[in-house]
Amino acid sequence: MTTRRRLRLTVSALVTAGVVLLGTTAAAAPAVTLAHPATNGACDPIDPTACLLPFPNDYFTVPDPASPTGKRVRFAADAMPANAQGVPIDPTEWNRQDGFSPGSPILVHVPGLDATATGIAPVTDIGRSLAPDAPIVLINSATGARTPYWAELDAHATGEPDRQLLIIRPAVALAEGARYVVGLRGMRDRAKALIPTPKAFRAYVTGAGLGRKDRRVPQMKRVLADLTRAGVSRHSLYLAWDFTVASRQGLTGRMLAIRDGAFAGLGAAAPPVTVTHVTEYPPEQDPRIARQVVGTIGVPSYLTGDGGPGSRLHYGPTHGDGTAPSRYALPTPSGATLQADFVCNIPRSASASRPAHLSLYGHGLLGKPTEINAGNVKTMSATYGFTFCATSWIGMADADVPYVAGTFADLSAFPAVVDRLQQSFLNFLFLGRAMIHRKGFAADPAFQDAHGRPLIDVAGGLHYDGNSQGGINGGALTAVAQDWTRSVLGVPAMNYSTLLQRSVDFAPFQAIMDGSYRDRADQQLIFALLQMLWDRSEANGYAQHMTDRPLPRTPAHQVLMHVAFGDQQVSPAAAEVQARTIGARLHTPAIAAGWSSDVQPYWGIRPIPRYPYAGSAMVIWNSGAAYAPPTTNLAPAGPEYGDDPHEFPRAQPGAQKQKATFLLTGKVIDVCGRQPCA
Fold first, then answer.
1. In terms of domains, do 409 and 541 share one?
2. Whole-number Å distance between alpha carbons of 454 and 442
3. What is the DSSP letter of 367?
4. Of 267, 268, 295, nearest to 279 (Cα)?
5. SS3 549
6. Are residues 294 and 260 in the same domain?
7. φ, ψ for residue 300 (rounded to 5)?
8. How far apart are alpha carbons 545 and 590 in whole angstroms?
């Protein structure tokens, strides 16, 4: 059964049988409140559509000299989106942040906006966003540099103009800790008439009608001054505001504390390994794989309780209750040991004289480590002599499906998802160390021949290969990896706030969300809020350190991205953002003429200068059976988009040859004869 069908059946069953339990039946849902009250100053008055608009926004921060950015996010509880039972999302975890996501969607409501009449840069023409007269400008206040983006009206709110937000998506990750200014000008309706400036914002432009104690005045003066320096007249503005991006410490500090603490405790030893099952396959049963080894790795738990779904990161004293003693606290070991599952496949070609190369494998969306049993993984294992080992992305693994589905009924539960994902990163790192340690797997009979000689090449080092979710989370894992320097990210991307509604896999979760958080404006705010926490455990929060600007005590890495043109599960547009951010070069010609709907396909991504290429790269694989996706935040669902090519790249012999060569030598080779890859 495919991942998509399995998820739909599982989550659909939860919607049918569990939606009453989750409290999200449409019958029980109260009428939607179209605007949050702003009586206590918790809402920004310049966009009254929803309390947290415009977003992200330094209006929702307070000074904090102890934080790296000098700011701390502060959302009021009654400012947060509320579910159908009237329960707002608990802002506690968000209020530990020192800024907003480097990939945050920038959200605002412009009544009557027509994006085409206004000339807003769409996803098909990102270069237009940098035009001198672009109606939207996104400026780094420290450098004055303009940031490319694309913008779109929420296609899910078509027919609900009062709730249809403008979504501005950065086309490259925003600099950590930097302050950005957003300016909108020349907003026009369908008749091409200018849309009048909101009264609350116009007061800051003219100075008329402002109260003497308006705390926003100094901030708005800075915003307007920054735009003036960038050549944007204050009198041309429809709306403007600023926000601060989270610092490196705010994004990655928790995971680095977990990694460094756990490996300091491990020292020079191998992680404890328990082999629970060994299966020997005769050639007639499996001509590619000779042996499968199943077991567990003992990993220090940084989670509360038993570490299962719903557990949170542990803070404070070991064996304590895990409560964070302060907003600055970093995770600490709970004192318990988690048994992380693993599955390894040893190829038939492995022998003591020719031991198998070693690679971790990252499974797909809400999947299992047994995905290494897929035919394409077995073929690569047999053809190129790899032993692949996998563990579960706990937090977003098969066992987490009920919990993850439930969070879309009450998103106060969501922080546990990203907390467990950070533990899963540690589980992967410990599995990797056991794979290459001479007293780890190599010392266990399960990984030896009949004479006690290792069948795996510990001296050859470790590598990483992952697909789909394994490509998304694998980018973040690579950024914190100390035991390998080369990763293949199959059908990858970053930034779930962009990916979710562009994926056919999200449909059953959207159904739960539609019953729980029915307001379309709130839904877009929710995606932006979730991304603030998801950054701690997916590539969006780590991309700026994935390759050439490594994190502390971490080597630089090389990454090979294999992207499926027309992918219906992981949006290629988000993969392109990752490529721009990490400096990946593009195989060209990337796509044959006539396939892409972009004005300039793969805008802003420089080509590979020559082969073989020693560096990070992105290769587009075109199955020939899928077509360009929607140019809005809709999934490519329907026959007009062809057959989903999501699993196409990994199955191609040329792609496997390119992957193996890259992992073993660090060189990207041309396997497509100077033509588009297909």
1. yes
2. 5
3. B
4. 295
5. coil
6. yes
7. -60, 130
8. 26
Contact 288, 384 (CB under 8 A): no
Same-domain check for residues 219 and 271: no
Number of domains in the chain: 2
* Pick from 165, 86, 57, 46: nearest CA to 521: 165
- The encoded tokens of residue 518 equal 């029915």
Structural domain boundaries enclosing 130: 58-246
The confidence score (pLDDT) of residue 32 equals: 40
Give the distance between the most distant pair of CA atoms in the chain: 88
CA-based nearest residue to 621, from 584, 671, 546: 671
421-453 CB burial, b ≥16 within 10 A, e <16: bbbbbbbbbbbbbbbbbeebbbbbebbbeeeee
Of 19 and 330, which is predicted with more confidence? Answer: 330
pLDDT digits (tens, 9 = 90+) for 108-141: 999 999 999 999 999 999 999 999 999 999 999 9
In a domain, 200, yes or no: yes
Measure the CA–CA gap between 303 and 301, rounded to whole angstroms.
5
Spell out the residues 6+ positions from residue 304 whose beta carbon is closer than 8 angstroms to its own: 311, 312, 313, 314, 321, 322, 334
Closest CA to 475 of 455, 490, 461: 490
Domain boundary among 219, 246, 273: 246
DSSP one-letter code for 286:
-
Each residue of 551-605: pLDDT tens digit?
Answer: 999 999 999 999 999 999 999 999 999 999 999 999 999 999 999 999 999 999 9
> What 3-state class would DSSP assign to 475?
helix
Helix (H) and strand (E) counts for the chain? 15, 18
Considering 202, 230, 246, which residue would you say is the last residue of a domain?
Answer: 246
Residues 338, 273, single domain; the answer is yes
Q: Is residue 113 part of a domain?
A: yes
Q: What are the CA-CA distances from residue 393 to residues 368, 465, 508 (Å)?
A: 8, 14, 21
User: Per the domain annotation, does 6 fall within a domain?
Assistant: no
HSE-CB of 34 using CA atoms within 13 angstroms: 6
Q: What is the mean pLDDT of the chain?
A: 95
Specify which residues 395 forms β-bridges with: none
Per the CB < 8 A criterion, the answer to whether 168 and 138 are in contact is: yes
Please name which of 159, 154, 179 lies closest in space to residue 169, comparing C-alpha atoms.
154
Tell me whether residue 175 is in a domain. yes
**Cβ 315 vs Cβ 325: under 8 Å:** yes
Q: Count CB neighbours of 675 within 10 A.
A: 11
User: Cα–Cα distance between 251 and 245 in angstroms, integer?
Assistant: 10
Q: Which residue has the tokens 């420290």?
A: 142
Same domain, 448 and 428: yes
Residue 209 shares a structural domain with residue 268:
no
Residue closest to 151 by CA, chosen among 133, 171, 132:
171
Q: Which of 15, 423, 419, 45 minimizes the C-alpha distance to 204?
A: 45
Q: Report d(CA 433, CA 483) in Å as an integer.
A: 7
Chain Cα centroid distance, residue 226: 30
- The answer to whether the CB of 300 falls within 8 A of the CB of 335 is no
Tell me the average pLDDT across 358-386. 99
Q: Rounded to whole angstroms, how far apart are CA atoms 105 and 243?
A: 12
465 & 568 share domain: yes
DSSP 497-527: HHHGGG-GGGHHHHHHHHHHS--HHHHHHHH
Query: What's the distance, Cα to Cα, between the start and end of the chain in Å?
Result: 25
DSSP assignment letter at 616 = -
Structure tokens at 157: 């709110």
Task: Check residue 360 and give left, alpha or beta (phi > 0: left; psi -120 to 50: alpha).
Answer: beta
User: CA 424 to CA 258: how far, in whole Å?
Assistant: 11
Report the CATH number that the domain containing residue 312 is assigned in CATH: 3.40.50.1820
Are 217 and 329 within one domain? no
